[in-house]
Amino acid sequence: MATRPDYYKTLGVEKKASAEEIKKAYRKLARQYHPDRNPDDKNAEARFKEISQAHDVLGDPEKRKQYDSGSGPFSTGAGADGGFGGFGNFDFDASSMGDILSNLFGGSTSGRRVRTKPRAEKGADLETQVSISFDQAVAGAQVPLQVPMHATCETCRGTGAKPGTTPIVCPRCEGRGIEAGGQGGMFSISQPCSRCGGAGTVIEDPCPTCQGSGAVRTVKRMRVNIPAGVREGSRIRLAGKGEPGRNGGPAGDLYLITHVSPSPLFTRKGENLEVEVPLSIPEALRGAEVQVPTLNGVKTLRVRPGTAHGTVQRLRGEGPPKLGKSSERGDIHYRFLIDVPEKLSKEQEKAVEALSAAMPGDPRARLFANSATAAGGDGADGGEA
Fold this sequence. Notes:
It is built from nine helices and 17 strands. A hairpin with a 2-residue loop joins strand 12 (288-294) and strand 13. Helix 2 (19-33) runs antiparallel to helix 3 (42-58). Helix content is 25%, strand content 26%. It is rod-shaped and about 125 Å long. The strands form seven sheets. It has a four-stranded mixed beta sheet with strand order 10-11-17-14. A three-stranded mixed beta sheet has the order 1-9-8. It has helices spanning 7-11, 19-33, 42-58, 61-69, 94-105, 134-139, 281-286, 346-358, 365-377; strands spanning 126-132, 141-152, 168-169, 178-182, 188-192, 201-202, 215-226, 235-238, 254-260, 267-269, 272-279, 288-294, 297-303, 312-315, 321-322, 325-329, 332-338. By secondary structure, the chain is of the alpha+beta class.
């Protein structure tokens, strides 16, 4: 049977010592025998483990009660590892070292100041919408923007505590940010502290401005750059323009959803633009040279004779920049539409009659050629026997 270790003797305190006396004794001895202060000293390291093991038991009211009564994991039987109640082989690892360092050197021993550095948190990402003109979408622009967001409270400078006070070490987890959830016996599971939520600190006197949150609601005014080539519904990420981080963490990102005003001339078709170009009947028949609009002025297109209604002609590389590829541009598609007047003057009627006489024939005859042949093969001539 394993010998019961005397944790009170290990810490040099009486059995009736208060929790504060145990804590002070532990701190004093831990500083003295800490491995960082005694490099390559195996005896000091072993002593430090004994001190830490003793504090782990006596510093916890429930464990101390079981230890004093010899119940639970501190019963007279030896643990599976051959030590007393499962604690004979204290497992001291890097995470334990980090917690102890935090308790020892994180701040004042008075218990009224922060001993642990709160975990840095990235600020929240935000999303907003911005309306721009067609020309701004094509060329890019810098536009003003107002974004509702949280900002660091100026009264408490983000601490959440009333000016003149500071957050204190969480009394439940002693600044570790975690606590052990009892599972019965000698096993326990670490989880975020239920009192401080894992921060390691609590605020006793909240800031009157932000009520302890460390942030206030505000509207941030800024000017943002819209890249060339955006279209309706484009989502632009502006890194670091979101809400500020907490405890020194980075700011979040701001996402812009673009709404582009329609152009009277150009229609967006993916990475390209389309323009409808009217042609007169003579231009479509004989061919012509017509001027068409581009993003940078005017160009001349050659219309081939006999151009049909709906024919598309393309100008490569004359379209908008491709988003994220400033050196590449889309195309402009020109769709020719034959302009047919709703009413004809007498002169136009004569011209049409002359044209019809000069161009005889039925352009729809071929639609019925195959069907007529098939009908003749079946012997159906539409007459009576």
